[in-house]
Amino acid sequence: MEIRIGILNSPREIGFETSQPASEIEQAVKTALETDAKLLALKDDKGTSYLIPTAGIGYVELGTEESRRIGFVG
To answer: Given 3.30.70, 2.40.10, 2.30.30, 2.40.50, which CATH number is that of 2-62?
Structure first.
């Protein structure tokens, strides 16, 4: 699944692929924001860790859990 996170006052966003289910990512984001945690910690498929300050999160976009099709669509 593709995840995109918009950062306040930044023209760029953080984007990466993860195999974690959308419900798990959504719950991690909600918990971090509701408990006033300083950081949101996520990992991608390659093992890279992302520590995002919760105060700077503008939005979190969760893509579909479907795998992408390769080739031409008719």
So the answer is: 2.30.30
